[in-house]
Amino acid sequence: MKKILLAGILLFSVPVFAQKTDTLTLTACQQLAIENYPLIKQKDLLSASADLRIKNLNTSYFPQLSLNGQATYQSAVTQIPQFSPLVSVPSISKDQYKLTVDLNQTIWDGGLTSAQKKLEISGLQADKLNVDVQLATLKDRIDQIFFNILLLQENEKIIKSVQDNLNSQIKKIEKSIKDEVQIQSNADVLKAELIKTDQQLIEIANAKETAVKMLAEYLNKPVSENTVFKIPETEIAALVYDNKRPEMQLFDYQMNKLDVSKKLTTARIMPRFYAFGQTGYGRPGFNMLSNDFDFFYIFGAKLSWNISGFYQSGREKKIIDIQKNLLDTQKETFDKNLKISSQKDMSDITKYEQLIEKDSEIIKLRENISRSAASQLENGIITATEYVTDFDAEIQAKLNSELHKIQLQMAKLNYLNSMGKL
Predict the structure, then answer these.
(1) What is the distance between the alpha carbons of residues 368 and 376, in angstroms, rounded to a whole number?
(2) Helix or strand or coil: residue 292?
(3) Whole domain around residue 131: which residue ranges?
(4) Rounded to two decimals, what is the model's pTM?
(5) Residue 216 belongs to a domain with what CATH number?
(6) Closest by Cα among 308, 304, 340, 358 to 418
(7) How far apart are CA 40 and CA 102, in angstroms?
């Protein structure tokens, strides 16, 4: 047939999946593809990593213990002069030894640990949602391959019906040839067209086999070439702009992360309070007038405040504010571009709905013309070549109709995907 529409469009490298019922839906394909896509593993890994970091942060309020030991020899020691021959003042040894256990307990760290944990949580939310955003591109690829297979599947049905029609006409023509009503060339023209349909079926089978294999690899499931791919029926209440894209929420999570970072900057310059203690054994102990080995201990509280942190904190906050402004412009730009592109999706839906209405009218007229041409051919009024021209127009009209139906469903899915509603 001339200009038979094959599924050259929508041919992308993506796979599909087989079910026990040998019927495949787009939703099932998307779900299984995501479940088997390596990227999905990042969510659990990100959660595990953040959980460990938060547990490490929690230890900042645990008692910090350390064991220390030292042995020294010094060139001089403190000497106490003899004020009286009646008083004996011991001399301090130049070799000294100490073994201590030190304890530090954070009482208040200025909100640093709390801010760091909030930063980890907000970062985890953003990172996991970023994975979802990347997985959305996988769904788009699944959509492309699925609709490509649908188009191939529908074209195959039409071409096979064409073959049935041609075979029927050839039998009639050959009978007429025996009755010397028709000439052999008319039968040869129809046989040539029949061979062309064989070629078209070979091309369709090859393209479908390739797509199905790609799909099976994506889904990590065997997909039979005889699997029926079900055309999704998508209903849209109203064609309006309603942005629910995950990227918008990602922008919000990233903005929240910057707000937490700002609080962390403040926490870093706050004073910190600690309790501490030390116990040990050595020579000398805390009694410097004794040259004997002895136990000793000390405990107390301390304040630590890095005032020099104020030098940079103000500028760091201004940097964060600039980053927030940049993020706002990115969010606004994304929304603007999406709003513009959504106009095409909504326009496509309206266009294909109108084309499908006209397709029905064209097909009815073309079927009438083909029936008339077939009758004329049988009666020897027209040649097989003339008949094939009319019949080809009918088939092309049917192929266009199937294409428009699939394109309509794909336009609806594109619209819903672009709005983040799937």
Answers:
(1) 12
(2) coil
(3) 23-70+94-418
(4) 0.73
(5) 1.20.1600.10
(6) 340
(7) 46
